[in-house]
UniProtKB/TrEMBL annotation:
Domain named Photolyase/cryptochrome alpha/beta: residues: 1-137
Gene3D superfamilies recorded: 1.25.40.80, DNA Cyclobutane Dipyrimidine Photolyase, subunit A, domain 3, HUPs
Cofactor(s), by name: FAD; (6R)-5,10-methylene-5,6,7,8-tetrahydrofolate
Cofactor binding, per record: Binds 1 FAD per subunit.
Highest taxon above the source species: Bacteria
Record-linked InterPro entries: Crypto/Photolyase_FAD-like_sf (IPR036134), Crypto/Photolyase_N_sf (IPR036155), Cryptochr/Photolyase_FAD-bd (IPR005101), Cryptochrome/DNA_photolyase_1 (IPR002081), DNA_photolyase_N (IPR006050), Rossmann-like_a/b/a_fold (IPR014729)
Name by which UniProt lists this protein: Deoxyribodipyrimidine photo-lyase
EC number: 4.1.99.3
Natural source organism: Pseudoteredinibacter isoporae
Family: Belongs to the DNA photolyase family.
Residues annotated to bind FAD: 223, 235-239, 275, 278-285, 376-378
Entry annotated with the keyword Flavoprotein: yes
GO molecular function: deoxyribodipyrimidine photo-lyase activity; DNA binding; FAD binding
Electron transfer via tryptophanyl radical, annotated site positions: W310, W363, W386
Amino acid sequence: MQLVWFRNDLRLDDNPALFHACQYAMEKGDTVRAVFIACPEQWRLHDESPRKLGILQSALQSLQKTLADLGITLELLDVALFDDVPKVLLDYCQSHQANGVYFNREIPLNEKHRDEAVAELLGNHGITVQPYSDDRIIHAPLLSKQGAVYRVFTPWYKNWLSVLSNGLPEVLPSPKAPAKAVDILEPITVPGAEVFREDLWSGEENKALDQLQRFCEQKAEHYQAKRDYPSIAGTSTLSPYLAIGLLSARRCLHTLFEVCVKQGFHHEDCLNHVWARELAWRDFYRYLMLNFEHISRGENFKQEPLSRGWLTNEDAKRAWETGQTGFPIIDAAMQQLLRTGWMHNRLRMLVASFYCKLLCLDWRDGERFFMQHLVDGDFPSNNGGWQWSSSTGCDASPWFRIFNPTTQSQKFDESGDFIKRFLPELADLDSKSIHWPSQEQRLACHYPDPIIDYKEARQLALDFFKVDS
Ligand SMILES: Cc1cc2nc3c(=O)[nH]c(=O)nc-3n(C[C@H](O)[C@H](O)[C@H](O)COP(=O)(O)OP(=O)(O)OC[C@H]3O[C@@H](n4cnc5c(N)ncnc54)[C@H](O)[C@@H]3O)c2cc1C
């Protein structure tokens, strides 16, 4: 028997480990089974959010059905920590006579160490381990002309583009059924899973693929013009699917290209599409995490020691977390996160800048809060976004770049529609005062006073960051 170990790749489409396990089994007349290993204690340490576990559970239940149609039984194994995984996998392999285990690699350090321990233990017992590279668009090592690992996005991106200008990476089809359909055992339940917004996302791969197709056909063309306005549904909202691997990033790029080519664009134009560039950012943060292990340890990307420490201000932190800062765009954004588990990219940048720059709070706590609440929590992208915002990261926002929440609000939510949606108490304010209500208006709307004076906080932050510039 060949065993597929599912992790962040809960799909049939373009899944190297699943594809090759099925292909091998078909050639050899062998069978395939599959497992997913829940590690609730490890997930708690990694701050996985209950909503993300909710969509993960839904995806596993759906995968259980589609795999059963292919004759593959998917089972959930349950341990506390990654350290417990090698033994539980070995026991499973031995009790089901598995002689090969297939999985797609994951990049963060704990996952890497877990996989090394699995490979060693299974190898010692004569079980072959077959890891595949999966979760980026380009897996070949991208190095500068001097052979160095890139630390800055733009030259890395040029290299990324030049590789893709020779052709897109292969996407694998869903595997052919290696055996007759099997019955489903108990539907999988994932410890810690809670309700997610099923009106916004689904755990079904087909629905995720449909959403991708619709986005590419109907919205990608206007993405550049609309992507910065949180009141408009101008982005794909595919991030929860990419985070659990219900979609592959390569499939996203292929679909974009297919649609663009049909619309008469050339390969190079498709490659330079702004949406493809966003997928490149996702690849880039993974590339960094792979090449700089200290990122996985929660350290600043820039390793020069900081002479200053971050401030401690529990009241301000709590106000930010609960959307009570008295800055409408910040509070509306935090409400979006709390109510849906998702936040628009422009707002992620704004609230993170507010947290690290205006409140001078440690980016790691903001990163953790995001992970605990996001339905699309993704360690490399979240870490990259927070380090960019706090100017500690690779190619980060310069230390003196501090977003003014009010002018950003006026620019990107001009009519105040987004604020009104998430702060209904301000819905009656006109489009001018909604960005910065007067004291009387705040009182009348039961909306809090600002927790900081923007100008003072900005000056303090500039002094604070200047020390290490
Ligand atoms: C502080 C901060 C924290 C973030 N945390 C996460 C996170 O936990 N998970 C996550 O997936 N993204 C994160 N991002 C990146 C980005 O905000 C989201 O990927 C994006 O908002 C998701 O919406 P979408 O699917 O509509 O994106 P689209 O604009 O449609 O982009 C398509 C896909 O490209 C990828 N992508 C887009 N922008 C970025 C980016 N800046 N960095 C990395 N990948 C990107 C995502 O996979 C996204 O789904 C964070 C950004 C910041 C500034």
